[in-house]
Amino acid sequence: MSEGVRSARTAIGLAIRSRTLYARLRRALRSSDGIGDAALRGLCVVAALLAIVAIAEIAHQVVSGASASMSRFGWGFLVHTTWKPNFEVFGGATFLYGTAVSSAVALALAVPLGISIGLYLATVAPGRVRAAVGPLVEMLAAIPSVILGFWGIVVFAPFVQAHVEPLLHGALGFMPIFGAPATTGASVFTASLVLAIMVVPIVASLSRDLFLTVPRELSDAATALGATRWEVVRGVVLPSAASGIVAAAFLGLGRALGEAIATTQMIGAGSAIHASLFETGDTLASRIADQYFSATSRLHVSSLFYLGAILLAMGLLANVASQVIVHRFDARRLATR
Amino acid sequence: MSATGAMSELDSTLFDPAAPLTPSGRLRRRQLVSRLVEGGHTASALLAVGVLAFVVYSVASRGASALSIDFLTKDPPLLEGQRGGGIAPAIVGTALMMALATAIAMPVGVLTALYLSEFAKGRSARVVGLALDLLAGLPSIVIGLFVFGLLVVGNHQSGFAGAVALAIIMLPLIARASHEVLLLVPQGLREAADALGVSRWRTVRGVVLPSALGGILTATVLAGARAAGETAPLLFASSIYANNVSFDVFGHGLANIPMYIFKASEAADPYGFARAWGAALVLLAFILIASLGARALLSRSRAKLAR
User: Fold this and answer.
1) What Å distances lie between residue B203 and A103, B188, B195, B209, B216, CA to CA?
2) Residue of chain A minimizing CA distance to B268
3) Which residue of A has its CA nearest to B199?
4) Which B-chain residues 18-37 have CB contacts (< 8 A) with chain A?
5) Cβ partners under 8 Å of residue A162, min gap 6
6) Cβ-count burial of A190 within 10 angstroms (0-12 exposed, 13-18 middle, 19+ buried)?
7) Residue B109: its chain A contacts at CB < 8 A?
8) ipTM field
9) Staple partner for B163: which of A125, A175, A240, B100, CB 3.0–4.6 Å?
10) What is the DSSP letter of A178?
11) If you ran DSSP here, which 8-state letter would residue B17 be given?
12) Which pLDDT value is given to residue B11?
């Protein structure tokens, strides 16, 4: 009995001792774990903050670079079309116009085409074809803009100038935007076509993903009611993805607005506003890329930064618009589920 | 025709047991429209693939004649209008800048992704996510202006400045894609580690990162393929450079392939054009192979994680 009690006591003593030992060990371990946890957390927070700081710092740099031109020309910069570095007179309206027109033409071509490709991939193509064509369309977005621009000016623009522009001029020449083809291949129209090539894969892959998430029951129900495949798309798939498509179009707009290199190569660096798309023009981004080397004065550089600030504002707006639409879209979808 | 006659005729068309089971009239028109529209969808997909093939074919057929061992290992000729020479400085410069940009962007991007998947909640996650999306949507020439104002003004162009610009472009791509992969790591693995009393950072180091490693690496390769072709930011950061191979990242601008193509396309030198096509082929081959390969790997590692 006493033997048993003693052995029980030693066992308990051992257990207590080992528990304190274990606790000490755990405390030691936990403190190093605590350091590790805190360090990892700290590193992650710093990295995440870096992204936010980068956005703020980019905006700050661009605006401070533009400050000289901003204080000199003010908001009038947005409506004046004179750009004469020799006389220190700068106005950005020509480039705003060029950016708006080239992006609008690019989107007018790319959005329907992109949606159509998205529909092909989501509703028409058999599984294996979809797996092959989808990545190929996305590869179109992987071609560097400098190569697309180089190809555009050497191969594509002469073809468009010789065959497409006369055709459009002949058929639709009563509209001033389809004037007589210019002598060189460089024009707002060819630049817009190349921009469209860049925007199509964005719209196509985003809209394909949207179409694939349309609930299967909805389209099945429409099919059961006797709708043909196109009627299912028109009546069910397109409406339920509509706001997502708008968001995708805004993302594409952001891409088209900001493209500098390919447009510089193709648009012809014109300094005047022409009604015809077949004349040269210039965009905000391509004017910056074009004149950065030849900038003659500080005011000239500052005016280029002013163009950059306008571009930054437009790009941010397009992206925020897209985000807002997507979030409202998601909220609505979750609510209807 | 009397009304009863019309009725009986209607009856016979409706209930004629001998009528073939093919659509007619209105239904036939609807099906025809459906088929036509779907033909339009197919045609637009063909158009996109055709444009890709056209661009790749143009670059390959024009670039192939310039390609040779000399082209990859020699300096370009000193003066314009000379035949021959290579683009070795541009290849070395692009490789150096890409390596440096990856070394900057990858740790920051992966840590940001870890923040989003392991630590952030609600509002802070949304803010960081928004910042990443805005960064990804920024016109690359604006990033060029930023680097110009930050590192080049009052200093000089350098390969480092170019690498910083490329890193800013890569950062959101790496962070977003890594975040997606980290979300695929089964929550059960984290819970099992928690149940064993493993601390958070050990879980991340020992469980989460290893299972997401494949996805993170392919995300980095994809981002690199995207950044390797960026020209606009390098215009400000690394466009003035010497004509020979250089490893000096901080001293001066480094030659690079996109800038080389851009300058050649703006000049009127037929031999320069030929070299630019060759350079375009080298760049395009690298980008297409890297992104196709990374995509294949990505879908494999995703399938593995999702299992």
Assistant:
1) 48, 12, 11, 9, 17
2) A154
3) A33
4) 30-31, 33-34, 37
5) none
6) buried
7) 47
8) 0.85
9) B100
10) S
11) T
12) 55
Rounded to a whole number, what is the distance in Å from the CA of B224 to chain A's nearest CA?
A: 11
Could you tell me if B280 and B229 are in contact, meaning their C-beta atoms sit under 8 angstroms apart? no
| DSSP3 helix / strand / coil % (chain A, rounded to 5) | 80, 0, 15
* Residue in the block written with tokens 């803010």: B127
Question: What is the maximum alpha-carbon separation in chain A?
Answer: 117
Residue B20: phi, psi to the nearest 5? -65, 150
pLDDT in tens, A118-151: 999 998 888 888 888 988 998 898 899 999 999 9
CA distance A288 to A257: 13
Buried b / exposed e across A99-114, counting CB within 10 Å, b at 16+? Answer: bebbbebbbebbbebb
* Residue pair B220/B290 in contact by the 8 Å Cβ criterion: no
With CA atoms as reference, the chain A residue closest to B27 would be A228
Among candidates B286, B280, B224, which has minimal Cα distance to B55?
B280
At B68, give phi and psi (nearest 5°).
Answer: -165, 175
More confident residue, B231 or A329: B231
A-B contacts (CB, under 8 Å):
258
Beta-carbon contacts of A85 under 8 Å, excluding residues fewer than 6 positions away, are: A291, A294, A295, A296, A297, A300
Check residue A161 and report its DSSP letter: I
Output phi, psi for A307, to 5 deg.
-55, -40
Integer-rounded Cα Rg, in Å, for chain A is: 30
Residue A270 has pLDDT above 70, yes or no: yes
In sign, the C-alpha dihedral spanning A255, A260, A266, A271 is: positive
A positions 44-83 inside 8 Å of B (CB): 44-48, 50-52, 54-55, 57-58, 61-62, 64-65
B45 touches chain A (CB under 8 A): yes
Tell me the HSE value of B212 on the side-chain side, using a 13 A CA sphere.
Answer: 30
User: Do residues A207 and A245 touch, judged by C-beta distance below 8 A?
Assistant: yes
Q: Is A331 on the interface with B (CB under 8 A)?
A: no
DSSP B236-285: HHS----SS----TTTS----HHHHHHHHHHS--HHHHHHHHHHHHHHHH
- Is A112 or B28 the better-scoring residue by pLDDT? A112
Distance CA A335, CA A149 (A): 45
Q: CA of B146 to nearest chain A CA: how many angstroms apart?
A: 5
Cβ(B231)–Cβ(B279) below 8 Å: no
Task: Please name the residue that has the structure tokens 């996805």.
Answer: B215
Q: What is the pLDDT of residue B1?
A: 43
Do the Cβ atoms of A142 and B288 come closer than 8 Å? Answer: yes
Q: Is residue A263 within 8 Å of residue A102, measured between CB atoms?
A: yes
The pLDDT mean for chain A works out to 85
| Per-residue model confidence (pLDDT) at position A5 | 67
How far is A4 from chain B, CA to nearest CA, in Å? 35
Q: How far apart are CA B149 and CA B119, in angstroms?
A: 34
Q: Does A257 touch chain B (CB under 8 A)?
A: yes
CB B272 within 8 A of CB B293: no
Q: Collect all residues of chain A within an 8 Å Cβ-Cβ radius of residue B42.
A: 120, 124-125
Strands A89-90 and A83-84, by their bridges, are antiparallel
pLDDT digits (tens, 9 = 90+) for B70-90: 888 788 777 666 777 778 888
Cβ-defined contact of B288 to A261 (cutoff 8 Å) = no
